[in-house]
Write a structure and sequence with these properties.
18% strand; 327 residues; 5-stranded antiparallel beta sheet
């Protein structure tokens, strides 16, 4: 081979060697950079994930958050009241009293001075005031406004005229709210209510409050001890009122002034041969209330239950507790 050609070929080979080495170095540099970049990215992702589960932490949208309503702080709730221990006798009434009418002796009582609503037992005081304030034969005409009360079984209607004595039957037997309003509003209603409050004080019910003549108001309230005083007064001084509460059924004939009406007692003990009188009541606030006067071993005995879940059953339990009888 021509020496000149050898020199050219050697030069070319040397150049290729130099280029190869440079390319290798460059590839190595690129590979190292890719490796570094990959490690950096991996570290960045690892630092930007939630608990290592691989979910990227996103930057909050400040504009979106600014439009959201402020977070409501939880309202602290009052601690739950401890459950009241069950009555050992199974009586549901929150307050009760059993006592001898004549001697005043108390046999059993529970929270006798606790002031609670007593609902339609108020109508006993309404009857006392009405019979003292009006002549029993006085006529009272029922107005449309006086019928705007919860309905009852009396069937009394606006425009009817009845005597005071006739209105006492639905008042005390059917527990008529219409009759109560008619009696109180026939003169001066505010004055009538004041007299009811005055009577309650005189009867030994100083804790009592009376806001209406029917007992629909939850403000009509008093104590079991106070109603024991009322029971003693009715038995000893006003047997005419108790006599009406003992009637199971009565009626008044139709006249030009009023329609025919049949009035029936709603007291659960009205058919008991020993029943001497009483009154019931029921509202959402008062629950069930009841005064029952029974002859027990020839002794007139008052059974008063207030805020009861079952007034008839509670009274039966108290009767059994007093007499030892089973029902």
């Amino acid at each position: 081979m021509d020496p000149k050609n050898r020199i050219i070929i050697a030069a070319i080979m040397f150049a290729l060697t130099i280029l190869g080495v440079g390319a290798g170095i460059r590839l190595a540099q690129l590979d190292e950079k890719a490796r570094i970049d990959a490690a950096t990215e991996k570290k960045r992702l690892a630092e930007s994930t939630i608990s290592g589960y691989g979910y990227p932490i996103l930057k909050p949208d400040e504009e979106f958050l600014a439009k959201q309503p402020p977070e409501k702080k939880p309202v602290p709730q009052p601690a739950a009241k401890p459950a009241q221990p069950a009555d050992p006798d199974g009586i549901t009434a929150e307050a009760y009293l059993v006592g001898d009418i004549l001697s005043g002796r108390i046999y059993f009582e529970k929270s006798p001075d606790k002031v609670v609503p007593f609902a339609s037992m108020s109508k006993l005081i309404t009857a006392l005031v009405a019979t003292d304030l009006y002549d029993s034969a006085a006529k009272i005409t029922i107005t449309a406004e006086e019928t705007l009360v919860p309905p009852d079984a009396s069937g009394l209607k606006a425009g009817e005229s009845l005597t005071v004595k006739e209105l006492l039957y639905p008042l005390l037997m059917n527990s008529s709210n219409v009759a109560g309003e008619a009696l109180a509003s026939s003169s001066n209603r505010m004055q009538f209510l004041k007299l009811m409050s005055d009577y309650s004080w005189e009867l030994g019910m100083p804790e009592s409050h009376l806001a209406d003549p029917t007992g629909l108001s939850p403000s009509n309230s008093g104590t079991a001890r106070g109603f024991f005083g009322m029971a003693r007064y009715l038995h000893n001084k006003r047997p005419d009122i108790l006599a009406i509460t003992r009637i199971a059924t009565t009626s008044i004939a139709s006249t030009t002034e009023h329609s025919y009406h049949l009035f029936s007692s709603i007291h659960p003990f009205v058919d008991d041969p020993g029943f001497l009188g009483g009154k019931t009541g029921r509202t959402n606030e008062a629950l069930e209330t009841m005064l029952t006067i029974l002859k027990v071993d020839e002794h007139p005995t008052a059974f008063i239950v207030l805020r009861s879940r079952n007034r008839a059953r509670d009274t039966l339990i108290l009767i059994q507790k007093l007499t030892g009888a089973s029902f």
